[in-house]
Design brief:
352 residues; alpha/beta; CBS-domain; Spore Coat Polysaccharide Biosynthesis Protein SpsA, Chain A; 7-stranded mixed sheet; 3-stranded mixed sheet; 10 helices
Length: 352
């Protein structure tokens, strides 16, 4: 990936055009002899040069932007704001040595898709709950099991897996039931997978939590759990560190939802007189995304081979004062295909 985004600052314009054509990102970043990123060169910079001169052999340091903008690795959360303020499409992410670690693009910043040049490696197992029938997605789910519903040209489950792979997480267990033979056949047919995927069969529907009972004998470490119909964009490493620092038995990843009630609301006093009036009030609340970080201890609260919702087990933990925390993400970072309208929005957002 480095070869597609980085070029020597003494390279020719012809060489830069070739690299830009190969990466399809309309930009390259220039490095000096110490491999420090010192400038950027966009297709706009090149067009401006060619308007004044037809010289394709010129060294790119003569026309590059040495006042380019970038974001430090520990300040990546500021990237979107910087891009919007300065009306630019991408930013390189640099470490303390000014070496490039990734590139963030505005068009898919909400997806937190980056072109990684250094890889992370959390090495934490992931459980994907994929046994449901997807009744809210009929008639699609009458033909395809929910884990195989395509979002663009990629299945929802593969998009979920891609997110974890970005953080070096490559060990997955999928709990399957409805049309499970089709799900297993699809993934077993993928050659040269860069991840490990094992399946656990539910012999009968066990709701949203009962399938976790199968993990008691095999899951001995902290793990991620996600439903198979959501995509959560965020820093999974940050979620994990927060979970461990707080010593939670479980951490919810929650989305901040902001709603505007399309009506004026009235508050009455005890005598039924109008106390206050608010036109189209704004409401904020945290919602459960269906994405968790879980300790093996939580599995002790899962009954064996019994249909039960995970929320029921969580309520038991709360009563027993077990520590349950949250990690917050923005509303835009949570994509849920649970209903037709949301599915179409997800296809529009991720479709390729």
């Amino acid at each position: 990936m480095r070869k597609k985004m980085v070029i020597k600052e003494n390279a020719s314009l012809t060489k830069a055009l070739k690299v830009i054509n190969e990466n399809s990102k309309n930009i390259v970043f220039l490095e000096n002899k110490s491999k420090e990123i010192v400038a950027s060169l966009s297709d706009g910079d090149i067009r401006r040069h060619l308007k004044e001169s037809k010289d394709l052999c010129i060294q790119i340091d003569k026309i590059a932007n040495y006042s380019f903008r970038y974001v430090k690795q520990n300040e990546i959360t500021k990237a979107r704001k910087i891009m919007l303020k300065n009306k630019i499409n991408c930013l390189p992410v640099l470490n303390e040595e000014k070496k490039i670690t990734s590139v963030v693009f505005i068009k898919d910043f909400n997806k937190l898709k980056t072109l990684s040049i250094v890889s992370k490696a959390l090495k934490i197992p992931v459980v994907i709950m994929a046994g449901g029938k997807g009744t809210r997605l009929k008639p699609y789910s009458d033909i395809l099991p929910k884990p195989l519903i395509p979002i663009g040209n990629v299945t929802i489950t593969e998009r979920i897996i891609e997110r974890f792979l970005d953080f070096g997480i490559n060990n997955f267990t999928m709990i399957v039931n409805h049309k499970r033979d089709l799900v297993k056949a699809y993934f077993n047919g993928i050659k040269n997978k860069n991840y490990k995927l094992e399946f656990i069969d539910e012999s009968r529907p066990l709701k949203t939590g009962g399938g976790l009972g199968f993990l008691k004998s095999i899951m001995k470490e902290t793990f991620f759990m996600t439903n198979c119909d959501i995509i959560v964009d965020g820093d999974y490493e940050k979620f994990y560190k927060k979970h461990k620092q707080e010593k939670n038995i479980m951490t919810f990843v929650c989305a901040q939802k902001n709603l505007v009630l399309p009506y004026g609301t009235i508050q009455l006093d005890s005598k039924k007189n109008i106390l206050s009036f608010e036109e189209k009030p704004k409401m904020r609340f945290l919602t459960n995304t269906g994405f968790y970080i879980i300790e093996p201890e939580f599995l002790n609260f899962v009954p064996n081979n019994k249909a039960i919702d995970i929320t029921d087990m969580i309520k038991v933990c709360i009563k027993l004062k077990k520590k349950i925390g949250i990690a917050k993400i923005s509303e835009e970072a949570w994509h849920d295909m649970g209903q037709h309208e949301e599915l179409l929005r997800m296809i529009d957002f991720f479709g390729e």
